[in-house]
Amino acid sequence: MKILVCISQVPDTTTKIAFGDNNTTFNTAGVTMIINPYDEWYSLVRALELKEAGVATAVNLVTVGKADAEPVIRKALALGGDEAIRIDTDSNDPYVVAAQIAEYAKSEGYDLVLCGKESIDYNNGVMGAMLAEMLDMNYIGFASSLDIAGGIATVKREIEGGEETDNSPLPLVVSCQKGMAEARIPNMRGIMAARTKPLKVVAAAAVNPVSAIVSYEMPPAKTGVKMIDADKMDELVNLLHTEAKVI
């Protein structure tokens, strides 16, 4: 069984971000880029666990990005991926990303495609479903558990008020969230091996985007906290009625 894991590059959440060109572009200067945590901690690690258990024979990685994305996918190789594919284009449109991956994957015979439930930069959470449609595969989203036996995937996912268990034949696309696996850290052996593992660059397909970012804006600055003396309950009640906001 061959598994394809979708890897996206995102800004580290501790990095201070800024916008340029009249707030129409994201300024990457000085920004540390990392593997999207949902891709790394859950989908990639679960794929590696399936290979270690003898269920899968190969775990390949794919990313849509320019050359600056290669350090991120090399880290994914260091965790244990067998080979990586970089599709040589860059887009923040999830339709374009899904179409690029589908164009590559449709002739490669993958039995299982895993991705994170969303990327932590744009939080769209739609790429996995789009990819499944383009590949004509079944799709199960927001999964917290995945097991495979006899060509059938058993997937658990959280629903409102409980948990749902689904069975689906392969091939299948699954988007993964917390609970799927435990995060790993690359060891020195994996880091050294990643330098020589295959990283294939594929030309991008001609895909027209269906969405575009008009502008960015920072969230409003947080205001200070008002401290009220314990003996001034009337003032506290008045502020709760006039100033407090329900979030």
Q: Quick one: CATH superfamily?
A: HUPs
What percent of residues are in strands? Answer: 25-35%
| Proportion of helical residues | 25-40%
Write the CATH architecture name: 3-Layer(aba) Sandwich
Mean pLDDT: 92
Helix and strand arrangement:
Elements: E1 2-6, E2 9-11, E3 18-20, E4 25-27, E5 33-35, H1 37-52, E6 58-64, H2 70-79, E7 83-88, H3 94-105, E8 112-116, H4 127-135, E9 138-149, E10 152-159, E11 162-169, E12 172-176, H5 188-194, E13 199-203, H6 233-242
Parallel strand pairs: 1-6, 1-8, 6-7, 7-13, 8-12, 9-12
Antiparallel strand pairs: 2-5, 3-4, 9-10, 10-11
Helix pairs in contact: 2-5, 3-4
Q: What this model shows, in words?
A:
The chain is of the alpha/beta class. The protein has a single domain (2-219), classed as Rossmann fold (3-Layer(aba) Sandwich). The protein has helices at 37-52, 70-79, 94-105, 127-135, 188-194, 233-242, and strands at residues 2-6, 9-11, 18-20, 25-27, 33-35, 58-64, 83-88, 112-116, 138-149, 152-159, 162-169, 172-176, 199-203. Helix 2 (70-79) crosses helix 5 and helix 3 runs parallel beside helix 4. The N and C termini lie far apart (46 Å).
Which features would summarize this protein structure in a list?
6 helices; nine-stranded mixed sheet; globular; single chain; Rossmann fold; 247 residues; 30% strand
Task: Compose a concise summary of this entry.
Helices cover 26% and strands 30% of the residues.
